[in-house]
Amino acid sequence: MKRCFSTRQRRILAWVAAGRCAECGQPLEPDFHADHRIPFAHGGPTLLQNGQALCRPCNQRKGAQMPQPQLRPWQQDALRKALTWLVEARQDRRFLINAAPGAGKTRVSCVIAQTLLALGEIDRVIVIAPRAEVVNQWADDFRQVTGRYMSKVTARDGDIHGLGLDVCATWAAIQGLQDALQAMCGAARVLVICDEHHHAAVQAAWGEGADSAFAAAQFTLVLTGTPIRSDGAESVWLPYDDAGAIDYPEGGTYTLTYGEAVDLGYCRPVTFHRHEGRFTLDLDGGQTVQISGQQPATLPRPLARIPGLQRVLDFYRLACTPQYQADKQTPLATGYQASMIESAAQKLDDLRLRMPNAGGLIIAPSIEMAE
């Protein structure tokens, strides 16, 4: 690949930087430097996404050094605590980061890996993440921070140990890669980063696969934002107390709660809107019963004596029950759930007029409802 940015690329970099140095903010001269964020000498490509417009003095100061990521205060604290636990005290080979989703666990984990590599404590890094999209993001972030290429692998890749690279894969791929991952951990000093660790239930296939594949890993970095599974199952490697909460030593844990992340401005507060609805149930004899969030079902006296009927007609229970058309397969497009999603989509569209990158999350009470 060519080393120098083209004239067209230089124009775009200057335009993106609004005519100012991306480092010091001073106006750019016509002979500004089109710089590789990840230096060309470290494998950085001559592409716009790896480019930035710098003035001559800033680029000369930067040279061919890898850019140092800016860490938030909590990430700096987590980095220090992890190194103390894993390297200085050597209390255990696992460190847990329990931080709210979106707070920046990926970035600090890449810096921990970079530091352990620089200290000569590890040779290779393996990342396990929940989905292919997340795996791709890990590979991109890892290269930005460390300058090392991370190969995305699947169960079809076979002998990944022979690649001699850092690798990342999904939790679903662990069983098919179990022997290859074991070989990597046995032949080199490996840091394993387990993202969304709650996927690794002790008595489930992914948990058993991870426990076997990474038994010989030098270090394991456990990341979670939701440490308790909805089914109550325990995850591998971590002890739990009688209440089902993680009971790992405080020295080997860094915790940033969702409330703290919101207060610090790292995460946006989640807003829950009440969605009212009214259900009409047809009874034998032509009678109907009205149920809403404000009005519980009022049953005729003979029906009120039927055990459990009042509980079946609870508003929340009805709201969580999938609604279908007459064929019992096609979701009802005019039902309560459909109207709730339509209302949420409208609110999200309105919010994006002020916050273009706003997102939404649908939480289903069951797999049937999710499908």
TrEMBL record:
Q: Which SMART domains match?
A: DEXDc, HNHc
User: Cellular component terms, GO, for this chain's entry?
Assistant: cytosol
Q: Supply the InterPro entries for this chain.
A: Helicase/UvrB_N, Helicase_ATP-bd, Helicase_Restrict-Modif_Enz, HNH, HNH_nuc, P-loop_NTPase
Specify the domain of life of the species encoding this protein: Bacteria
Q: What's one Pfam family the UniProt record gives for this protein?
A: HNH
The record ties this protein, via Gene3D superfamilies, to:
1.10.30.50, P-loop containing nucleotide triphosphate hydrolases
Location of the Helicase ATP-binding domain:
86-245
| GO molecular function annotations of the record | ATP binding; DNA binding; endonuclease activity; hydrolase activity; zinc ion binding
**Protein's name in the database:** Type III restriction enzyme, res subunit family
Species the sequence originates in: Candidatus Contendobacter odensis Run_B_J11
